[in-house]
Amino acid sequence: MYLAAPLNCTGLAPEQGCVCQEGRYRNAEGQCVIAALCECDGEGRRREAGSEWEEGCQSCRCVNGLKQCQSGCPPLQCQEGEVKVEETGSCCPVCRKEFPGEPVAECRRYTEVRNITKGDCRLDNVEVSYCRGRCLSRTNVILEEPYLQAVCDCCSYRLDPHSPVRFLSLQCDRGETEPVVLPVIHSCECTSCQGGDLSRR
Q: Domain named VWFC: which ranges (predicted)?
C-alpha cells in the first residue's frame, strides 16, 4: 500500500492508495521523505533542506520544510548616555549619543535702550530689560495614560522683588503726559512653559 518513491503520484491529484507513510511527506519530485529532507519556499525560490540564506534584514534557514527566520543582529548594549537607533539603510541598530551636539540650555537677561511710544505720546532713551535664550524640551514614555509626557522649558522672567515696575510719563504732541507702567525684570531662567512671573511661584 505504501510506496517508498511514488514518482507517479502528485500532491494535487493523488491516486487511491498512493500516500506516504506516517511521518513522511511528498517533496517536489514526488518522493516520500522525512520532514528533515523537505524543501522550503523562500523569497519566491525553492530552498533545499537545511539551507541558509539572507532575507531582508533576517537570517533564514530551512528546517523540516518550514522557513525559520530571525534577526541577524548581534546583541547590543549601549553605554550610559547612549540609545539604540535604527538608521536608514542599516538592518541592525547602533548606539548613538542621546543628544549629539545638543546645545546647553541658555536663558539670559538683556538690557537695551529703546524709544517707547503710545499713540502720539513718546519717551526716548528708556532702559528696558528682557529675556532671550534657548531652553530644552523632550518627550518621555511613561507606564500609565497618556503614556507620553512632553516636558518643555521656556526662557522665563523673574521681576525685581523690590521694584517690580517703573512708572513712566510719555510726552504727547498736545503737551499732555501719558502714564505707563514698565515691568522691571530682575533675572531670567529656563523653567516649565507656564508663562508669567517666576517670582510668584
A: 40-96
